[in-house]
Specification:
The chain is of the alpha+beta class and 112 residues long. It has helices at residues 8-25, 51-69, 85-90, 92-96, and strands spanning 2-3, 30-36, 41-47, 72-73, 77-80, 100-103. A two-stranded antiparallel sheet has the order 1-4. The protein has a two-stranded antiparallel ribbon with strand order 2-3. Strands 5-6 form a two-stranded parallel ribbon. A hairpin with a 4-residue loop joins strand 2 (30-36) and strand 3. The two termini are 27 Å apart.
């Protein structure tokens, strides 16, 4: 994400509020947001069990997503895995304009 000029502090506050909300209410297994204040860029990494959880997150967190989005523009949107058709449609704006990609899995494992 590219943070808009003059929006660093409101962006930080919106992200903190969004992550606090998600931690208490939403289905993500993990959320990590990284920020480079010098370059005015941030990355949010979110891990979901499945597409149903992505859809649930979008529905319940829309106000927070909009609040964060008011202070930045999405430069890249990467999806790793096999999203449902509904999730793929939900991120299609990023695919259509070249900012997004969906990369299917090859092989891996998790240790949590």
């Amino acid at each position: 994400m590219k943070i808009k000029a003059g929006h660093l502090q409101p962006f930080r506050e919106a992200v903190r509020a969004a992550v606090d909300f998600v931690e208490e209410n939403a289905p993500q297994l993990m959320v990590r947001t990284f920020i480079d204040e010098t370059e005015m860029r941030a990355v949010s990494y979110q891990l979901y069990r499945n597409s149903a959880d992505v859809l649930r997150h979008w529905q319940m967190s829309d106000a927070h997503i909009q609040s964060v989005s008011a202070h930045c523009t999405v430069e890249k949107f990467e999806v790793y895995g096999d999203p449902s058709q509904e999730v793929a449609r939900g991120v299609s704006q990023f695919m259509d304009d070249g900012r997004g990609m969906i990369m299917p899995p090859l092989k891996g494992f998790s240790r949590f």
